[in-house]
Amino acid sequence: MQAGKDVLIELPLATSLDDANRIVAAQEASGRRAFIDMFSRFSPANLQLRQAAALLWPGYELTLKTLALDMMHADFDLVTCLLGKPETLYATLPWLLSSRSGA
């Protein structure tokens, strides 16, 4: 971007929040475009899956609140099968914390 060119960035965008913020700052300073490679979003198979889901579950909305329960269980299972169970696990659920505090 400093060379005046748009860039295509492969996932992951960055390995830390600081690195991601540097990418955003470079994009804003240069006025160039930074594209994140999200090729799977536009694959014909995923398009058909989204269309089928809309027909099977009308009105269902996938959100960050439902993502881990609805989509990531297979990913977590694969990682634990490959690497073993973690000794320690931490999770932050902001929507759960805010609902308990009455906010």
Task: Describe the overall structure.
This protein is mainly alpha-helical. The protein folds into two domains: 1-58, no CATH class; 61-103, no CATH class. Helix content is 50%, strand content 6%. The protein has helices at 17-30, 44-56, 64-70, 73-83, 94-100, and strands spanning 7-9, 34-36. It has a two-stranded parallel sheet. It starts with 6 loop residues before the first strand and ends with a helix. 0% of the residues are buried.
Task: Give the key terms.
103 residues, mainly alpha, two-stranded parallel ribbon
Question: Outline of this structure?
Answer:
The protein has helices at residues 17-30, 44-56, 64-70, 73-83, 94-100, and strands spanning 7-9, 34-36.
The number of helices is: 5
**Total tally of structural domains:** 2
- The total strand number stands at 2
What portion of residues belong to β-strands? 5-15%
Based on secondary structure, the structural category is mainly alpha
Helix and strand layout, with pairings?
Layout: E1 7-9, H1 17-30, E2 34-36, H2 44-56, H3 64-70, H4 73-83, H5 94-100
